[in-house]
Structures are given as C-alpha cells and as structure tokens.
Design brief:
Number of strands: 0
Strand content: under 5%
CATH architecture of the largest domain: Up-down Bundle
Radius of gyration: 21 Å
Distance between the termini: 36 Å
Largest sheet: none
CATH topology of the largest domain: Growth Hormone, Chain: A
CATH superfamily of the largest domain: MFS general substrate transporter like domains
Number of helices: 17
Length: 463
C-alpha cells in the first residue's frame, strides 16, 4: 500500500473508531473460538468416542489452518478492497459456525472448525494490517497494545467461557451462541463498514498456496502419526519440510510472492517474530495442558477447569491493555525482561506438578505466566514492525501471524504427544511443562541478543 502514511494522516478519526471497533470485536470472537474447544475436548472425546490425539485436532487443526491461510491475507488485501475482504471473511466464518451448529459426527465438526479457521486467519492479519495503516506511526505502540489485548484475551478467555457454557449446555452451544453475533456483525458491516483501499491486479500463485497447505499440514500431522506409525510419521515430516523449503524458495523468486519472506532478513523483525512465536507456543500449550490436567487428573468439571484459567485470562487482558502505552513511553527492555522473569517464575510449579497439586497453586502459577506473557507479547509485536517500510507491513503482519499460529498448533500437538509417552499422565505433564520452560528461556536469550545488537548499532551510529 503505497499511500499507507497518507491514509493514516487523512482518514476521518470517526471512521478510525468505526473500523477499529468492528474489526476488534470480530477478531475477538474468531480468536475466542480458537480456544473454546480446549475445555470441551474431554467432553467431545467421551461423546464421540474418539482418542484424545484425534479430538485435539479440533484445536490444533484450527490453529494450523489459521497459520496456513494467513499468508493469503497479504495478497487478498491488495487484490480486493478492504470492504470486500471484511464482508467475505465474516461470511465464511458465519457459514462455518452454522455448520458446527448442525454437525452430526466428528468429521463434520472438524470441517466446521476448519472453515472458521480459514476465515479467522485472514481476519486476524487483516485487522492488524488495517489498524497499523489507518493510525499514524506515533500511535503504533498504543494501537498494537489494543490489538495485542484482543490477540491475547480472546484465546485466554475462550476456555473459561466454554466451561460456563458446558456446565449447563452441550458442546454444540459453543457454535449456537456465536452464530447470531456473527450474523449481526455481518449485517452492520454491510451497512457501515467504509472503503478506503484501491485493489490492484495481482495473481495469487496457487502453487504456493498448495505447497504451504500440504507442507505445513504434513509436518504437523506427522507428530500425531509418529505415535502409532513411526516410519510413516518421519516420512510425512520429511516431505512436509521439503515442501515448506520449496515454498520459501519460490517466494524469493516471484515478482508478486504469496508471502514476502525476504523481510525476514530485517533483524528486528526476525528476532521479535521468533520471540513472539516462542511466547505464543507457551501460551497455547500451557492453556491446553492445564485444562486437560484439571479435568482428567484433578477431576474438576469443565466449568471448574475454566475457572482455573479465568484469573490468568483476566490479568492477561488488564496487562495487555496498559502495556502498549508503557511501550510508547519506555520502550521494550524493562517490559520484556520483566515479563520473561514472571513466565519463568510461574513455570516452576508446573515442572514439579503432582496429582495432589492444590487448585489455588495451579491457578496462581498459570496467572503469573499469563501476566508475563502479556508483558512480552505487545512490545515484541511493536518492535517487529518498527524498521519496515509501509509497503511491507501487510506481508510482515501475514508472515508474523502465520508463523505464530503454525508453531502454536505445533506446541499444542507436541505437548499432548509428549504427555502421553509416559505411563503416568502426571509425569507426562511435567515433561511437557519442561518444554515450555525451555521455550521461555529461549525468549530471554533471543531478547538479550536483540538488545546487544541494538546497542552495537547505536554505538556505531554515534561513533
């Protein structure tokens, strides 16, 4: 978008509010839907008589498909008007929600989830790109803070809300209660959502789409297949990895790539994106495992398991709401370092978890980790975009979201697979939490490296 800066300074402030409100509400619902199934997995497993490694695809498949379709968002943003992209995306999500309302078996339910995810992946990137575009650079920290609030709080509150719904209603109401809201948003958007972008003629490279879909899908599915057919799982992982490598190579040589992966050469974007990936893996993985542990080991109900996650979700939202302004004023250093320390501190009770672990300790440890995650997430998202040109924002947003969602789905699958290797799920839970501890340490290592590089560059410029 060549006129990104012009749009930010000339668009009517009232239009900004309208656009932002509709986008944030829509994105919140899509992201909340992403994790509402977390609490419902044990219920659906029992109701549909499926193995947990199969049922978990209701969450893993959703996250994976978000990551796969997100790269398309950059192309769609350029090929169609912003109004067309928004209305089409909301329409697809509504259709998936309707299918979930009437699903008669597991595979129909999974299809409904994947349709929702296809729309959610595009909407997530569209929302962030739009808000970065329509607000001036001096407001970017605050705007990214608000966006990060939605990105963090949506998935965080999903399991808790689902727990309340499941306590009195069936899992089908996770779709039924969302459907009228999405229909209302679609109707409001059709009447008042403004248009400010001009499409240009670009060709979406279907070979790139196919490589991305098959490569990511095979690589992730291999983790589950390895449990029962190790050789086949390895083969799927190798083929998936090759397809992803070919996808990346193709993007580097296309005049209009599906995803401009060359921006990963920008060091601030690369390091901050890697930190965001690791933090998101910790968030999704811990959320899934704590919910399963609370229900299967501690024998809490779905609603009680949701209540265990609620304080963490609320504190995560409160922290995310203020951290954007703190970033604008003080920068990322104290926020990210403090957040990482909190994440590490909140991890230790989980790596030593026992079947008799008090619920209050589980709740507190999870809440501490969620506060730390919020302190990390928004600043690194803002830092990731600070050295990029306006033309690169849509591709950077798509790449950032795609990688985060794909690796988030990897995290959920990986932790569940690891937890089922030992004969005792309690031991398996400890092993999976050690993985999140390593990921948190990686956040700290990468950020310290970023600070060192930043200081070196600053000294050179001063000299």
């Amino acid at each position: 978008m060549d006129n990104a800066n012009d749009i930010a300074h000339t668009i009517d402030p009232r239009k900004r509010i309208v656009i932002s409100a509709i986008l944030l509400i829509s994105d919140f619902i899509c992201l909340m839907s992403q994790t509402m199934m977390v609490t419902a997995l044990p219920v659906i497993q029992s109701d549909m008589h499926q193995a947990m490694t199969t049922v978990q695809w209701l969450t893993t498949g959703y996250t994976l498909l978000i990551g796969i379709v997100t790269p398309l968002a950059a192309n769609l943003y350029e090929k169609f008007t912003n109004r067309q992209v928004f209305l089409g995306t909301i329409g697809i999500f509504t259709a998936g929600t309707l299918l979930g309302c009437v699903a008669q078996n597991f595979w129909m339910l999974l299809l409904a989830r994947l349709i929702q995810a296809a729309a959610g992946g595009i909407l997530m990137s569209f929302q962030m790109t739009t808000m970065v575009t329509i607000f001036p650079p001096e407001k970017r920290g605050t705007i990214m803070g608000i966006s990060s609030l939605v990105v963090a709080f949506g998935p965080a509150i999903g399991p808790t809300l689902a727990g309340f719904i499941l306590s009195g209603l069936g899992w089908r109401y996770l779709f039924i209660l969302i459907l009228p809201v999405m229909v209302i948003i679609l109707g409001i958007g059709a009447f008042i959502f403004p248009n400010y972008s001009q499409p240009r003629e670009i060709k979406i490279d279907m070979l790139s789409v196919t490589m991305s879909l098959l490569g990511s899908g095979l690589a992730l599915a291999s983790l589950t297949v390895m449990q029962t057919q190790f050789a086949m799982g390895i083969g799927m992982l190798v083929v998936g990895g090759i397809l992803v490598a070919l996808f990346v190579r193709r993007q580097l040589h296309l005049a209009d790539p599906m995803l401009k992966v060359s921006i990963f050469k920008v060091q601030s974007f690369r390091l901050m994106t890697l930190i965001g990936i690791a933090a998101f893996m910790v968030l999704l993985g811990t959320e899934q495992m704590v919910s399963i542990f609370a229900q299967d080991v501690t024998h809490l109900t779905s609603m009680q398991a949701g209540m265990v996650l609620l304080p963490g979700a609320a504190l995560n939202a409160i922290t995310a709401a203020i951290v954007g302004r703190l970033y604008d004023e003080f920068g990322p250093k104290q926020l990210v370092l403090g957040g990482t320390i909190l994440m590490l501190f909140g991890t230790f009770p989980f790596v030593m978890i026992k079947a008799t672990m008090p619920v209050w300790l589980m709740t507190t440890a999870y809440a501490v980790r969620m506060i730390g995650n919020a302190l990390v997430f928004s600043p690194v998202m803002s830092e990731a975009f600070k050295d990029l040109a306006p033309l690169e924002v849509s591709h950077a947003t798509a790449l950032n979201n795609a990688l985060r969602q794909v690796f988030g789905s990897v995290s959920v699958t990986l932790l569940i697979v690891i937890s089922e290797i030992p004969h005792s799920f309690v031991v398996g839970m400890r092993c999976s939490m050690w993985v999140t501890l390593i990921l948190t340490a990686l956040v700290l290592i990468l950020f310290v490296r970023y600070l060192n590089v930043k200081n070196i560059v600053k000294n050179l410029l001063t000299y």
